[in-house]
Design brief:
Layout lengths: L3 E3 L6 E3 L8 H10 L5 E11 L6 E7 L2 E2 L11 E10 L8 H10 L24 H7 L11 H7 L9 E7 L3 E8 L2 H16 L15 E2 L3 H35 L11 E4 L1 E8 L2 E8 L1 E3 L5 E4 L6 E7 L8 E3 L8 H7 L2 H7 L4 E2 L16 H6 L5 E13 L2
Parallel strand pairs: 2-3, 17-18
Antiparallel strand pairs: 1-2, 3-4, 4-12, 5-9, 6-8, 6-10, 7-8, 7-18, 11-12, 13-16, 14-15, 15-18
Helix pairs in contact: 2-6, 5-6
């Protein structure tokens, strides 16, 4: 489908979904965003839903301003995937042992490594910029400096919520490795720190929603935020890279006889800020729950823990600011999902997937998410499907 345009105070709201299907709270958030004095465009992805501070599935383009709440608290959260040389026939009939081996090398939940992972010991790890990341740590906000050791040991760990590590099989039978994670606790603390700073600035006092407080160009607060934001985005990128290296190593050992090899790794942020140019203007584009889908850009759009995921290639649609959805998107809150569904429902909806099936992850049940197929169908002018995957192992914190 093409987009539907809804009137907004400063800019129209371009929506790649039926506006009537979006909950009132999310629509109000979008209308609030459209009132910001610095806004130059607002695009809404088909996985749109209400979010803390700002709407998930929104792409906000502003001139000389950026809203930290519109990035989200998991700065740099995103996806990585790689195709292997294995086929479904190479996988064991009982996947529980393989799942356990993956969980032993990649800490999940609030877990972390006992000692920081040394990237030089990881097979084929490309660490361009990795060492510089820790040199630059000395220049981020003083409020989080004491977290250095924890941040180093959390590098290469999964986290909780909708983050996951998956083994998938595509329609041709090829096995893929996929994961979803972000900047862990350090990104969260940096985001909270800067959101609170922004709320206290004088130019934000008259906004319709204080959650939409912004930093302005050429101010010390903006420079401090940009420094910490881009550091956290790099941390998230390396976090996924380290995890993927650990993930691959499990497969190298487990499938030594098959001499497993790996294709080109696909990686994309979906909570981040990028400096881009549209209509002759240099803009700060914030994607919260959206991936970049410039012409030829590869991306990953996952479903839930019991449905398919898609590898896509961007079509470069500037009306969406070269963006596409980041996933299926929730259709109910975590609280609502826990009230509506049980562990028994989770077992039924994740049939055929080796995964947790207990009450601790009921809020991630497939029934709490929109249809990934419908979400893909609503953005055929944004991305082209390259591969459809179905998970056989799903690991959550």
């Amino acid at each position: 489908m093409s987009y539907v345009e809804v009137p907004g105070a400063k800019v129209p709201i371009r929506m790649w979904t039926d506006p009537a299907s979006v909950e009132d709270s999310a629509m109000q958030q979008l209308r609030n965003v459209a009132t910001l004095p610095w806004i130059k465009g607002l695009a809404v992805m088909p996985d749109v839903h209400y979010g803390k501070g700002a709407t998930v599935g929104s792409v906000i383009a502003m001139k000389d301003a950026v809203c930290p709440a519109a990035v989200g608290v998991d700065i740099g959260c995103g996806m990585s995937a790689v195709k292997t040389s294995l086929t479904a026939n190479d996988l064991p009939g009982d996947l529980s042992v393989l799942r356990s081996k993956i969980e032993r090398v990649i800490p999940v939940g609030a877990g972390m490594h006992r000692e920081a992972v040394d990237p030089e010991r990881l097979h084929g790890f490309t660490d361009a910029g990795f060492g510089d990341l820790w040199e630059r740590f000395d220049y981020i906000a003083d409020a989080v400096k004491y977290r250095r050791d924890r941040a180093m040991r959390q590098m290469g760990s999964l986290g909780t919520g909708n983050h996951f590590v998956e083994v998938c099989v595509d329609v041709s039978g090829s096995v893929w490795l996929m994961l979803h994670s972000g900047s862990r606790n350090i990104g969260n603390e940096l985001a909270d720190f800067h959101i609170n700073v922004a709320r206290g600035l004088s130019h934000n006092q008259g906004l319709v929603d204080r959650d939409l407080a912004v930093f302005l160009a050429a101010t010390p607060e903006m420079e401090a935020y940009r420094n910490d934001l881009f550091w956290a985005q790099e941390y998230a990128k390396f976090n996924r890279a380290v995890m993927m290296s650990l993930f691959k190593e499990v497969f190298r050992k487990e499938f030594r006889k098959a001499k497993v090899s790996f294709g080109r790794e696909i990686s994309c942020h979906h909570n981040y800020v990028s400096e881009e140019r549209y209509d002759g203007m240099d803009l700060l584009v914030t994607r919260k729950g959206a991936i970049r889908a410039g012409s030829g850009d590869y991306g990953i759009i996952p479903g839930s823990m019991g449905t398919g995921s898609y590898i896509v290639k961007g079509l470069g649609n500037e009306k969406s600011f070269n963006s596409a959805s980041h996933g299926a998107g929730r259709k109910m809150s975590r609280t609502a999902a826990k009230k509506r569904f049980s562990a028994k429902d989770l077992v039924e909806q994740t049939k055929g997937v080796e995964c947790r099936k207990d009450s601790g992850v009921v809020d991630e049940i497939p029934g709490a998410y929109k249809s990934i197929e419908q979400v893909i169908d609503q953005q055929t002018d944004l991305v082209q499907v390259v591969a459809k995957l179905k998970q056989v192992i799903c690991i959550k914190g």
